[in-house]
Please model this.
Amino acid sequence: MRSCKKIKTLPTGYALYFHIGETEKKCFIEEIPDETMVIGKYRTQLWDKQTGSFLPATPGLGMHVEIKDPDTKIILSRQYGSDGRFTFTSHTPGEHQICLHSNSTKMALFAGGKLRVHLDIQVGEHTNNYPEIAAKDKLTELQLRARQLLDQVEQIQKEQNYQRYREERFRMTSESTNQRVLWWSIAQTLILIVTGIWQMKHLKSFFEAKKLV
Amino acid sequence: MGSIFDLSAAVRLYLLSCFVVSVDFTLGLGQSQDTEFTFLLPAGRTECFYQTSTKNGSLEVEYQVIAGAGLDVGFTLISPSGYKLASEFRTSDGIHTVEPTEDGDYRLCFDNSFSKLSEKMVFFEVIVEGQPGDAWGDEEWADMAEPESMVEYKLEDIRETMDSVHRHLDRSRQLQTMLRAFEARDRYLLEDNLWRVSFWSSMSLLVILTVAVTQVYTLRRLFDDKRVCKP
Model:
């Protein structure tokens, strides 16, 4: 019997990190199908000259997050603190661009211009919060795991539908290129023949006029 | 008539727990963390990413240049102790595995300094195994949810769900086959295109040469005829 239920969240493993300069902008591209949720989490650390290591960043040192959709329209443009979490759901399939840059100008003074950013971007079914779903729908363990499998498969299907749409576009481009190549080649041949005939006629009349022939 | 429902409750519970354990094994007890990014690498710059790993794990890095003139980039992988594990100059894709890993931060660098003008779009994926707490164990799953009750209909539920998953996966496989056929067709179309371009270009060239020769010959004939005709 469990009297108190521990809601455990997935402990974060070691995410990838990179260094960012003061006015530097780093952009990441996510190619996703439509109606897909994306959650990005980041954590910043500041270089401390005294201890010679990276310490958790002071508040006031934030990151500006800008997200553009495939039509280069900005769907999110917000300032977050030193640790932030941003979410968006795609409404059109395609390449979404996530750009991060630091808003601080004082960094050069404190940190020697180096800020370490740990970034983790989760897409699709990885964004689902299973403890929350279990509590809301009152699911047992097997039901919850089955739900996870179903979410995974749903994401695969979405991805494939998107692939099909992309392939169609590729096919159209390819066919139009094919048409263009064919018509231009025929046109070029005709132009050449016509030019040749015209040249000969012109020269013939020229020589006749000059009484050379 | 012996059927599964004739068995005692204890035996049924045992069978169910066996099923749970086997499902757990198939879902994968291996704890691995998978990070992938697609980023823009400006011309003339080098970008580095760092991945922390533990001792005796494994690290796999795969990268591919998706866009940008030449589709190539330089890649280096440096271990926490400063030892250069991989160094590639101007390649379009690569895959490297480090096993066993040291404790510390591995450094991956993408180098586009040889290019003055073109920006590259690079996709890379880092798979780390042996990280603590990546996957949920049995206890965490059990903690999250309500306790199991009523074993009888559970097997039926499980069978139904598994069937649904199986059908979806079948459909996925069918779609994939269809897509593969389309892709092959497009590839043949492009290859035909190439042949057509070559053929018609040669024809054009032939026509040009023929026309040029005919012109010259006609001109000369005009002169020759008149000379013959004039007394």
